[in-house]
Every structure is written in structure tokens, then in C-alpha cells.
Amino acid sequence: MQKSPRLVDLHGTETIAPGFALAFQGWTMPDTPLSAPEALALAAQLRETNASALALREALQRRQKPWGAVPIKARLKVLRRFRRRLWRVIPELLRLIPDHAPADVMTAEILPLIAAIRFLERKAVGLLKEKSLSPFGRPFWLSGLDTRVRRRPLGAVLIIAPGNYPLMLPGIQVVQALAAGNAVALKPAPGRTALLARFVLLLEEVGLPHGVLKLIPEEDGPSASAAGYDLIILTGSEATGREVARAAAETATPTIMELSGADPVFVLPCADLALVARALHFGLTLKQGATCIAPRRVFVDATHKPVLFALLRHLLDKAPIRSSSSGAVDALVGRALQMGAPVSREGGATILSLTSDQASLADQDVFAPWLALITVRDMAEALTLERGSRHVLGASIFGSRRDAWRLARQIGAGTITVNDLIVPSADPRLSFGGSKCSGHGVTRGREGLLAMTRPVSVSTRRWNALHLTARIRVLHARFNSR
Fold first, then answer.
1. d(CA 367, CA 328)
2. Residues 101 and 290 sit within 8 Å (Cβ to Cβ)
């Protein structure tokens, strides 16, 4: 049988073409009824695909046992050697991502990955070591116990990588999983196999045991998602997230979903509009707008909106964006025009001018250089609009620090920046994650590392086990028999 058509979602991650009954299993169901032999052949192919995915997962779980038994300091030595090797292969990595500007690859892919490994070298031992709980704060009726908490690796982790940040995002997830003692199956986005194959080989060259990290084919995402891994981490679109969640539910596999955003920018009345314009230009330019926390919905009052638009247009005229046409943007523009909203094409970017009643139009995970300037009466109205949005990932606020911090306490985003956007999220100490249609769970930072483990508590009775004394046992039984 012929494999089903596949689409690339707005993250660059593989998704499934609609209209195929068995699409998520990776096979086409023809429009005409199958004959009995064809049905049997299709079933056999599905079983073969699923069996190979199960075999890989089982092999990784076997490989994980000895790797998880390696002391954390020894695992980190491998990552330290890997970090040093990365510096020497930068030209090669740049060539393996030819569709992105070298400056973007260096600053948004390689440097954050190196920083994340350095963070693990410094902090992973302390975060993952066994901890003894203090007797202070324990309930008095639990005295006499010595309690310790250990962090154990989850086992075999499936990481489904995106296409927009093909090295940094899966790279950080992989090194955190390995530091925690897990084995990893890594699925590249379409067209990214060569890059991640080199990534895997570099790790093995510096001492990672062969088979602890396995690269799987680009088209194996559906079967791998249903194979019963101990954790699935997906970076992709909302649509892909739903498909992976359905497959994972069949085996009760936990997931971390880092999905798309439609990030708000709150422009306070006291904001430096020239700074706001430069930040928006940066957000439109970086990766040509293909960033999940790029600015999309810019909330600004009617007085400052025309000034901000003029400043942004001036920047786009001076430094235009080289971008290709996008069907998703064209569809968005068509809907805006139908609603009577002005649309401007400036220097390769698309700028919508919306009223607060039209704000929901911009709550879209379209990966391209576009944004919407949304007129609001004040920040209270902007907050109301934000709370009704489907995507909750990042947010930016421009204005005085005092007013911005007050507003930040009322925003639900997981990553909030003040007088900046996108770049501060690269701090390796920070976790990253969204809610609603932007996903769940976190990656990166302290919390991302701990998410690769499960806590196991061990309580040892030293004395004062009153409930186990002979007299208490007799009294307990006597009261229960009434």
C-alpha cells in the first residue's frame, strides 16, 4: 500500500493530512472499498510498522538500565566533552541548516544549546541527588521516621522535534533526558535528518554508549507515539499535539507538549514606542517570524497606535524581511479584509490593524512574519482579551518596570518579558511551557530537568511506631469490630 500524504505544520513538524481514516497510523485508506486480500495486506503492514516501533522502544528501555546506573557525574562528563566538541563543529552545523540565516543559527540554536549544557554541568548533580527530609515540619504523629527522596529516570523518552528550531529545542531536551539517565528516541522534522544524525554521532564520538540515543525515521512519528514510551515530548502545532495525545492515551503515556503560541505584546501608555518598534521588528525578522513566542497580538491604545505603526513601517522599509509567500497568511489576510480590517504589507511583513472586537482573528498559530496592532481602551481591556485567547505561551510588556510588573502578575503566560521579547527566554535556568492550546508541561531549566525523572520516597521507621505495638493492634481491631 502507498503511504498517506503528510503535511508540514507551522512549526515545521510533521502532521497528518486530513480525510484519511488511518492517517495517524501512517497509511492511506482508499476511497473505494478494500477487497479482502487488500484489507489483510494493509493490516499486516500496520502490524509490521507497530511491531518495529515496539521493538525499538523495548531496546531503548534495555539500553537505559545500564546508562541510568552510571553515576550522574560520569554522565555529565560526556555532556561536557560534547559541549566542547560543539564549539569545533560550528561551521559544519551552520551548513546543515542552510535555510536559516547563519546569524540566527548561531545565536538562536548553537549558543543556547551550549549554555543549556553548561547549566547541567553546574546544577544537575545538586538537582538530581538524593535528599533527606528534615524532621522539622513533619507531623508529630510521624516522628521516628527517616525519609529520603530520590530522583529516578523515567526510562525511554520519545522526542518529536520541530523544523523551526531543529537543533536547539530537541538538543536541549535530549541532553536533559540523558543527564537524568534516560534513553532517547529522537524523531527529526521533515528535512532535518542529516542535522540530527550528526548530532547523535557527535554524542557517541565523545563517549555516549551506542544505542542510548536512537534517531528514528522522519515518517515514524505516528507509530512511535503509539509504542508505549515512558514519556513523549513534542514541539509542534496544536493539530499535531492533538494527534500525538490521542495516540499516547492508548498506552497511558505521559506527554509534555510545547505547542504554538500567538503571543501578546502589551504597550503601556508610558512605553518607549521606538523601543517597541525595534522589538517588533526583531520578532518579525528572527527566523522570518517562525518562532512560537514571536509577537502576534500587539495591544496598544488609539493614541499611540498610529505612531507605533509609522515607526515599525520605517524600520521595515530600511531593513526589509526576506520572506516567501504563505498560504496561511494569505488566508488570514482574506478573513481580515472580509471583516473590514486594514491590512498593510510592509518590507516583507504583514501588519493587520484590528479593533478589540476583531482581536480573536489574530489568535492564530501562523508561522510567518506577521502581527496585528489591536486598539484597546486600556490595559484592563487588553487583559480581558488575553484571558479569552486560546493560546497561552509567552507575553511581553513595554513600559515602566513598576507598571509592567504589576501587569505581569495578572498574565497567564509561562514566559513574560519586560521591555524585551524572545531573547530572555534563552536563559538556561528558565523553564519553558504553555497552557490551553499552547500545550502543557515544561522543558528546559530546573523544572525541565526534573520533568525527566520521577520522585521516589523511601521512609525508614527508626522508632515510635505506635500503630504497630501489640496493645494498639488489639485496640484497633476491637474498635473496628464494633
1. 8
2. no
Q: Can you give 398-424 as a three-state secondary structure string?
A: ECCHHHHHHHHCCCCCCEEEECCCCHH
The confidence score (pLDDT) of residue 469 equals 87
CA distance 111 to 108: 7
Neighbours of 254 (CB within 10 A): 14
Which sign, positive or negative, has the C-alpha torsion 426, 428, 430, 434? positive
Q: Residue 274 — pLDDT band, cuts 50, 70, 90?
A: very high
3-state class of 157 per DSSP? strand
- Using a cut of 0.85, tell me whether the model's pTM lies above it: yes
How far apart are the C-alpha atoms of 243 and 222, rounded to whole Å? 8
196 has a pLDDT exceeding 50: yes
Question: Judging by DSSP bridges, how do beta strands 145-153 and 131-132 pair with one another?
Answer: antiparallel
- Cα 236 from chain centre: 7
What value, to the nearest 5°, has the Cα angle with vertex 452 and ends 451 and 453? 90
Give the Cα separation of 63 and 269 in Å (integer).
57
In degrees, rounded to 5, the angle at the alpha carbon of residue 188 between the alpha carbons of residues 187 and 192 is 165
Which runs of consecutive H residues, i.e. helices, occur in 269-326?
273-285, 305-318
State the first-to-last Cα distance of the chain, in angstroms, to the nearest integer: 69
Give strand pairing partners of 266. 299, 397
